[in-house]
Amino acid sequence: MRNQTAAVTAETGQSRARQRRWKSFYTQLQKNKAALFGGYFLIFIIIVSIIGPFLTRHDPAIVDYSAKLLKPSAEHWFGTDHNGRDIFTRIIHGMPLTLSVGFASVLIGALFGIILGVVSGYYGGKIDSVIMRITDIMLAFPGLLLALAIVSVLGKSLFNVIIAVSIFSIPTFARIVRGSTLAVRKLEYIDAMRSLGASDNRIIFKHVLPNIMSPIIVQSTLRIAVAILTASGLSFLGLGAQPPAPEWGAMLNDGRNYITEHPHIALFPGLSIVLVVVAFNLLGDGLRDVLDPKSKK
Description:
Elements: H1 2-29, H2 33-51, H3 87-123, H4 125-139, H5 143-154, H6 158-185, H7 188-195, H8 200-211, H9 213-236, H10 248-255, H11 264-291
Helix pairs in contact: 1-7, 1-11, 2-3, 2-11, 3-4, 3-6, 3-9, 4-6, 5-6, 6-9, 9-10, 9-11, 10-11
């Protein structure tokens, strides 16, 4: 009876503590102007990626050699490329592609990484050793090199890029989740719940995962920036999105042969990649300051 009362009290205290943390989240985040700028800019980018393609005047795929290599003007805000296609229109239509690669790859990588990390940290023993040795092997390869090898095996396509970026994101999430799970598993109320007969699934989904969401959110935000850079790099090398898809990395590759005389062809896609990646990094740094207690020490 005493253990049951202690477990209920501890569980209630943990729930209230989590509520207080999330209520103070917005207040603390408002103090970080850079993170707010990154967050608002990303919201703007997401909105533009949804409604922007319906508002553009030009077709991103139509070739018009009579209008090729035009400089930025009132008619073509970012100029035209070597095929006469409007660069501004192609950047707007490329936003959903670039963002979908970032979000989808991180979502898949986080899902498998969380599963492996929780299982490894919660159960320990031989399972922990096997999972961690596999992640060590994966982490031994540079992320871009591993993704490049995977895409080379699977073939050239945007879908295969998502798979490749997802795979090299798994070990990072697995290690972070494992460390957080080890810390939560040692809490007294977890032992009390276990002594009362609570199943492992109940403990993991109701008590472990809610307490380790902060580092997962931070890592996901920062990882999206890495995923976008990696996907753009693979498309730049010709292994990602294939023509005439208006993916930013592929557009950057199209402009590299004209960068001396017509720098606008490569400038605007490259600038778009930089701005989105910086925004994700600013938001991720701000979230880490608010959600990760260790960063405040």
